[in-house]
Design goal:
This protein is of the alpha/beta class and about 325 residues long. It folds into two domains: about 10-150 and about 295-315, Rossmann fold (3-Layer(aba) Sandwich), CATH 3.40.50; about 155-295, Rossmann fold (3-Layer(aba) Sandwich). It is about 30% helix and about 25% strand. It has helices at about 20-25, 70-85, 115-125, 155-165, 180-190, 230-240, 260-265, 295-305, and strands spanning about 10-15, 35-40, 45-50, 55-60, 90-95, 130, 145-150, 170, 190-200, 205-210, 220-225, 245-255, 270-275, 290-295. Helix 2 links the parallel strand 4 and strand 5. The longest helix is centred in the first third of the chain and has 17 residues, at about 70-85.
Amino acid sequence: MSFRSNGHLIVFAGSSNLELATEIAGDLGLELGERKLSRFSDGEVYARFLESVRGKDAFIVQSLSRPVNDHLVELLVMVDALKRASTKRISAVIPYYGYSRQDKKAAAREPITAKLIADLLTVAGIDRMLSMDLHAGQIQGFFNKPVDHLTALSILSNYFKEKKLKDLVVVAPDVGRVKMANSYANRLGAGLAILHKTRPSHNRAEISTRIVGEVKDKIALLIDDMIDTGGTIVGGAEVLLKGGAREVYACATHPVFSDDAVWKLQNSAFKEVVVTNSIHVPNEKRFGKLKILSVANLFARAIDNIHNDGSVSSLFKGENF
C-alpha cells in the first residue's frame, strides 16, 4: 500500500509495545522518532524528544498494559513534552486502553476510572485518540476530542475463514458480547451460541452449564475482547465440550494474560488461542497453542488517513460493535 506522508508525520513509541510501534512506522515507510525515556532514582518518569517536532503531526504508540500505571504516566509525560515543543497535533495511539473495565459505577462509591484516564489524556494535551476493540464502546464519549475506534474483526475473522472450518458456531461468553459474536458469525457464515456468565468479584467469573444455541457436533469459536486471567474463557471451553462441541478455539483482541493465564490456556481444551499484538506478549508468556496476528497495518492505514484528513471509518465500515 502506498502512503502519502508529506514529511510532517512522525511516530514515536512508548516502552509498552516497541515491536508494534516499529512495525507501524515501517508500514508507513518511516523510522520511529528518536526519544529518550528513563527513570529518576525515585522512579519518576523522564522523557525527551531528540529531534525537532515543531509543526509536526505526532503519533505516540503506547498500550496501557502491565505495568499499566507506569505506562500511563509515561504516555502523559510524553504528551506534555510534545505539547511544550510546539507540535502541531498530538495523537495517542492506544491499542489496548487500560482501565476500560471501570467504565461505570457498579457499586456505591466506586470511581469511573475509564473517564478519569480520558480526562488525564485530554488535559495532558492530546488532540486525538486511536484505540482498538474497547471493552465498552461508550468510552469514546468520555473524550471531548476525536476518538477513532478500530476493530480487529476483519483480521481475526479472516484467519479463521482461511481455515475453512466446517460446522462452525461462534460463541459469546455472555450477553454483553452477543453483538461482537454476531459480527463474527456473519463474516464466517457460522451459527451463534451464547454462554451465561456471572462475576461474583473482580477478576473472577463463573460460567454456568447453560448454553443458548446449538453446539453439539460443531466446532466452537469462543470470542471475547480480551483474555485476562483466562478463567472465563477456559471455563467456557469446558462447558462447550460438555455440551457436545467437537473442538473449541479461542479468539480475542487483547492478550492481557494476568496471573496464571498462560498455564490455564496451555492446559485447556482449546485447540488454538488466537490473539493480536495489541499488547506485547513476552517470550515467557508464549505457548504452543498461541497464535498472534499483527494489527500494525490497520493502525498504519488509520494514521495515514488521519494525517491526510481522510476517512478512518472507511477502513472498517460495517464492522463496528
